[in-house]
Design brief:
Number of helices: 6
Largest sheet: 4 strands, antiparallel
Strand content: 15-25%
Structural class: alpha+beta
Number of strands: 4
Shape: elongated
Number of domains: 2
Order of helices and strands: HHHHHHEEEE
CATH architecture of the largest domain: Roll
CATH topology of the largest domain: Nuclear Transport Factor 2, Chain: A
Distance between the termini: 127 Å
Helix content: 25-40%
Length: 197
């Protein structure tokens, strides 16, 4: 009884077929590994793609000025005078107060001033944070007390929030120390100078 399923009977040639099948499987495995590596490489490098783009390549040209070789191209650092450092520091403090960034403004006080004025008191004290309402800054006046201490007076005007008329003029006076390096406020006061118009 013989059953035929469409296979050839076993011959010596069938041994060679095993080798070819094995070689075909190895080649197929190698192709799969290589295509997997290419897909992984393209996935990790999104700018690359295995399919050609239909968009033409566009080169970006950045216009530049010709370099003047006779001119020194190294920037010279600008050194601020102590007076300008103090003025910038106080203007920054005023900006923090106007922006109601009181925590940051509080850090501009010296350690001894912070020890004597808690943050909660600082926020409520009009000498430090001005009263609620509308304010306008005027000029500043700077003088040096000693080698490390400066006095800055900011002209301040409390104005009507409706029409902008000046209600009261003040002088906001800061004593700033540079003794320990960076500037810090060691005293502050808000003094009325005149009634508004």
């Amino acid at each position: 009884m013989s059953h035929e399923y469409g296979f050839q009977p076993y011959t010596i040639a069938r041994g060679y077929s095993k080798r070819y099948v094995l070689l075909a499987l190895v080649l197929l495995g190698w192709c799969l590994v290589m295509s997997s590596c290419e897909l992984n490489y393209t996935a990790n490098n999104p700018g690359l793609s295995s399919t050609p783009s239909s968009d033409p390549v566009k080169a970006t040209v950045v216009p530049t000025r010709p370099v003047d070789k006779t001119r020194d191209v190294t920037p010279t650092p600008s050194v601020l005078s102590d007076q300008q450092v103090v003025v910038n520091f106080i203007e920054h403090y005023a900006d923090l107060v106007f922006s109601q960034l009181f925590r940051r403004a509080y850090t501009k006080l010296s350690a001894s001033l912070r020890d004597s004025e808690s943050y909660d008191d600082f926020v409520q004290n009009t000498n430090y944070t001005l009263s609620k309402g509308c304010w306008r800054e005027g000029q500043n006046h700077v003088s040096q007390l000693d080698d490390h201490t400066w006095v800055v007076g900011l002209e301040m005007m409390q104005v009507s929030c409706v029409d902008g008329n000046v209600m009261v003029n003040y002088s906001w006076v800061f004593h700033v120390s540079l003794a320990d390096g960076p500037p810090e406020i060691i005293a502050i006061g808000l003094y009325p100078t005149a009634a508004g118009s």
